[in-house]
Design goal:
- The structure is a single chain.
- The strands form two sheets. The chain has a six-stranded parallel beta sheet with strand order 5-4-1-6-7-8, with helices on both faces. It has a two-stranded antiparallel sheet with strand order 2-3.
- The mean pLDDT is 94.
- The chain contains ten helices and eight strands.
- By secondary structure, the protein is of the alpha/beta class.
- 48% of the residues lie in helices and 13% in strands.
- Helix 1 crosses helix 2, helix 3 packs across helix 4 and helix 4 packs parallel to helix 6.
């Protein structure tokens, strides 16, 4: 089984989610945080936790009520952004999905989005669970989110996988890599197409860092996955 992150990994949305997150934080709080600051501390996280992380790490501020207000504004603005802004499949992802299906390798999407947002994104991409991917696991489906392994564990349970050593995780953020490591995945792979650059990804000590999703095929061959 391969578990893929969504935004920045399988989905090219030009950082809409983190631009929207930054706007919600700055608008509600009267701050002037940069996109780079938001990406550094929010990427890959469930989005309410992402806001709390940004507030604490960038502003030394802990305020759950303020974070909730920002989160509600974020959800409203993101829904609108996904209606009007272009969103595309990431380069070569649909070819990779087909190749994995031909190999009988399960394709699971997991995401820091809630289920409503993630499903709306699938509709926009014209991706169907059961055809293009085998499952969608979201932040609202589990008690604890990245870097905790709950989403990967839920996928493992869903498909009756006996050992996480047959699972590969790939994502564009440090916290994606940590999620795979905490789940005991055979490989935890970073990709440079999203939130974090190669240097940032390397700080989490992934098994591999790739620049294109199709590089995954030779890695799976090498490890007999």
């Amino acid at each position: 089984m391969v578990v893929f992150d969504m935004a920045g990994t399988t989905v090219n949305e030009n950082n809409i989610v983190y631009k929207t997150l930054r706007n919600a934080i700055n608008t509600v709080g009267g701050f002037d945080l940069s996109l780079a600051e938001v990406l550094a501390h929010a990427a890959g996280r469930e989005k309410l936790q992402a806001i709390k992380s940004v507030l604490k790490c960038c502003l030394n501020l802990v305020n759950d009520q303020l974070a909730e207000e920002m989160f509600n504004v974020f959800l409203q603005e993101l829904a609108h952004a996904y209606e009007v802004e272009p969103v595309y499949p990431n380069a070569n992802v649909e070819e990779l999905f087909r190749l994995l299906k031909d190999r009988n390798v399960l394709r699971v999407l997991n995401t820091g989005y809630n289920r409503e947002t993630a499903e709306a994104l699938l509709v926009k991409l014209n991706w169907n669970v059961g055809r293009d991917v085998d499952a969608l696991i979201t932040a609202s489906d589990v008690p604890m989110n990245r870097p905790h392994p709950d989403m990967i564990n839920l996928a493992i349970e869903k498909f009756g996988i006996e050992n996480p050593s047959s699972v590969v995780k790939i994502g564009d953020s440090i916290i994606d890599i940590q999620e795979g490591q905490n789940a005991g995945c055979r490989l935890s792979i970073g990709i440079t197409t999203g939130a974090h650059n190669r240097l940032q990804l390397n700080s989490a000590h992934p098994n591999y860092i790739i620049d294109d999703l199709l590089e995954l095929v030779s890695i799976l061959d090498k490890h007999n996955v």
